[in-house]
Amino acid sequence: MNINSRKSSLAREPWMPLGTLLVLITTLGGSASADGMHWTNGLSTDDLRFNALSANPRANTRMVEVPLSTATYNLNTGDSVLREQLLDPRARSFFGYLVSCALDASQSVQWNDAQGHSYSWQGGIGLCPEWGQGPASVSCQHWVSACLLARNNAEGKRVLLSGRGAHPTYPEALTPSSTVTTDAYRPYSKTLTASTQPCSSPRQGVHRDCGFQLEHIGSCQPGQPVHLGAGGVPPGRGCGTAPLGQTLAGTSVLRVCEGLHACDDAQALAQSEGTCGTSQPAVSFTCPEEGSFSVMSGARVSNEPAQVVVAAGNSSYPADETEVFSLREGAFFGTLFGPGALAVGVNVRIEAGVLQVNLPLALLTVLYPKMYSCHDSSWGLTSALMSSRLCTQLGLFCVAQPVGACNAWTLAPGYSGPRCVSDNVDGSGGYGACVTPGGTLVSQTITPFLPYGCETSSNLLGCLLSH
Predict the structure, then answer these.
(1) Phi–psi pair at 154, nearest 5 degrees
(2) Is 194-319 in CATH node 3.30.420?
(3) Domain(s) of CATH 2.60.120: residues in the chain
(4) Residue 461: predicted pLDDT
């Protein structure tokens, strides 16, 4: 499945700084990438709490009653409750994630402000594309809410993850892909790696920092040798041995990077512009500690065509999404929308084109009291994992309620059993049918999986802090 969720002109202009957040782990939220359900984060907790759409009582209720469309939000002719709300920069950030969670890649929403600045948000994951034409059903509201919370990131960093679940209508939306494309961005950043951008003038060789294409991510055993090629014989294997991969057109170069992201020349794990006296590239390298590597290719001369088929030995390449993202974090379920979805009225609104913010005094209140998270039992940090991602320091003003381990035995009105009835509802480890503290069974759950690296780290806490 091809999912390409992009945010265009999503200006992040902090207008209400809240101080430093205490973060044990900052994962999830952002834009889905273009090869499988390889999501990225970036929706900051502040943008989720203090935006003029979901945190405004009138707008929150109204937005699910009308289409998620360009016409609804038109500044001049749109819905009278909603048309000015995107003047708020935090609402625009929130809206980008809303659109990419709800709509599919064929749908988009455009909006122009009074100064003529244009914004466009592309659909991607497609949990309820019907919202583009009409109101959002209750089921749709729950799916999108789970997606937004799964992609929330206390600091707004960009971290890759895999979102999984069992969607009855659009199962492909939460199904892991057979491959994962190398990510074009710098780790934990919204800045593109220079080498993924076009060269301003023709450049030659493998050491340039422009004009590379993204290949795929591989999985390997840390400390073990890996061989990879696009038609060349990997170093150390002997020039008379069989080559790996192919260069189908032109002459090519290869670069391998640690982890899941593209890299520039200085950070390359290995690279080649030919072996054994030929122009056919191949590399040999030691599998990095995180157990994953990413591959880039390019033409030897940047403005010339080249086409490669990359193959690897002593590794899984390309690795499927379940191999790359194998660390289950927990589950998100409930709703951000509709009557009673807000515990207190943050009331971020627009008056005469000017942003007005009224903050409640009850900062210890969970803002979205119908939204819940549970954590996987493999995390030794218990509920601290979720609370630190959904709250500010000391648990102030959380966006959802952490309810403990997903498989813990739970007593709720009319229910006795594990918090989540299934721990493999989709066949790939996603939790399903989770129970709220009030005893309501919610089938619309999303389970985020994190990259493999932290799972094998000798310092789990340090690894989580780095994310």
Answers:
(1) -55, -40
(2) no
(3) 194-319
(4) 45
